[in-house]
Amino acid sequence: MAEESFLTDDFLRQLINVGEVDILVGLPTHNNAKTIGSIVHTIQSGILRGFPRERAVIINADGGSRDGTPELVTGVSIDDARPASKLYALRTLHSVSTKYASSPASGVAFRTILAAAELLRAKACVVMSPESVNIEPEWISKLLRPIYSDGFDLVTPTYRRHKFEGLLITNLLYPMTRALYGLRIREAYSPEFGFSGRFGSHFLAQNAWQDGSDGAGAELRFTLAAITGRYRICQSFLGEKIHIERSAANLVPALRQTAGALFSALEPDFPAWSDVTGSQPPPTNGADHEALLDPLRVNRKRLREMFSTGVAELESVLQSILSPSTSAELQRIARLGEEEFHYSTELWARTVYEFAASYQKSVISRDHIIQALAPLFRGRALTFLLDNRNASAEDVENSIEGLCLEFETLKPYLLQLWKSRE
Amino acid sequence: MREMIINELSQALHEIARGFAHFLPRLIVMLILAFAGWVIAYVVKAVLRSILRLIKFDKLSENAGASQLLTKAALPTATEMLSRFVFWVTWIGFILLGVSVLGILGLQEHVARFFLFLPRLFVAIFILFVGLLAASFFSRAALLAAVNANVPSPRVLSLAVRTIIIVFVLSIVFEELGLAEQTMLVAFGIAFGALMLGLAIAFGMGGRDLARRFLERKFVRAKKEENEDELSPL
Questions:
Q1: Which CATH architecture does the domain made up of B118-215 adopt?
Q2: Which end of chain B has fewer surrounding CB within 10 Å, N or C?
Q3: B contacts of A317 (beta carbons < 8 Å)
């Protein structure tokens, strides 16, 4: 119960007023006034439909919004949700908002939600993204029901996505977590997921925030903690995932939250992943993936330019991270034109594993290692786009599966790199 | 007359013998100090070398960019260099201590100055090393940020950051050592002013085309790309 100390007195007072709950919905926000009203309505409808008899609370952890987001969260009345659902909650649905900091930090927001869940002794919790504009009331049940009724500890989502969306997930995070930890979780890092109160308390007690960081990538570490702690995990298909803003400019922060969090977890988790061979799919409610094939105009020339420039300009940095053979091969493909360009799955897997090993050895600043991965990822993304330009959903899935198998095949290479550091 | 000369000679010989008898123990003490100093310096060198290897000092020096400089100058590794430096400083310190025991008036002042200078020398070396580390870190940070932001000529930017930091560090080092303070101040002022003027001229005239291309790429392409979809990495 030491975690309560970082919560404000006002927030603690509000939590005491709420008392114990069965269901907790966590909503981290930062300047989401445009969308938050409809999202809270949808969450309320979801609770009314799926859990009318349960004691429920919405916890809003706000990172210093200046557009009145917290007021909007607490101001939304459940009466607005009733006519649509034609259902009535038999219990009070509380909405509590707290400002955890004056600037947003997803890890700290998540920690606040976990601490509130522990204090309120919530049985089942769900974290929802304030940016998912197409959220449906059913998402609440899909993420909570397996925990509340079936005894699962973590429910990760699967989505219907465009075949070229989430390339960092499909080309790095999914293949690597699957190869290392042996579980085929499609969305190990997601803004929406459900978890049991007992697993939330376990993760909170691990003090993942003790290193003084703001807990970047805490959502991914949460999933990895569930795997290594042998908690019961399943996936639920939610539907189409639509972001408010699509921005490739956020690649470096995205790499920090995913690749950075994964690389930093490898050392403490070494006993858990070093002996794993092959991989197993977790139980899944609905499809474990669905791909949209609409035409998408992507600037391939720019991707290739940024890859080639990155490899040429960062030559000395890459030489300190990669093996001479990998580095030479990257230099070679950086000189190829778009038609001949091909960043093979084998070379990409080797690149990522060498980055992970160098991250562990701290050959240079760890954050610089993650930043140096960005241009290389663009090269891999370009190859994925070129290979799957006219591909069907099945072809795309086969392509991802091939990459995953390459990561699994090359796992001994990572272990060899790991041992060589000693 | 003959007796006088013999007397003077024997007196002079006596004085020389007395002086030598007076000086000999001091000389022996000096030699003992020099020998003991060599042994102590050798032990200090061996211990320091082990500690530096243990803390992977060569790796740090590689990160600071100092190793590359040493390799180019065909010098030994940073660990070896620092160990040898400490060996010589320690041994010379003991020799000078021995020299001061000899009681030669002119030398004593210089010996005292040497010992007063030692702490400043070590501080200067420390500042230089930390400065090289900082220059390496920030120039790499600038290079990575420029590459990921697709800024033209990222290496020039990185080199500029490194040069500015190294110039600052060298000026602090010379000030700490108290070497040619006025000259260094003027030289630093001229070098820094020239650098800024050079950058301004380069940006204004030499970089005209570069700036035009950069602005074109930034705004013209932005318009062209409005119709292109951005891929979300997550």
A1: Orthogonal Bundle (1.10)
A2: N
A3: 140, 143-144
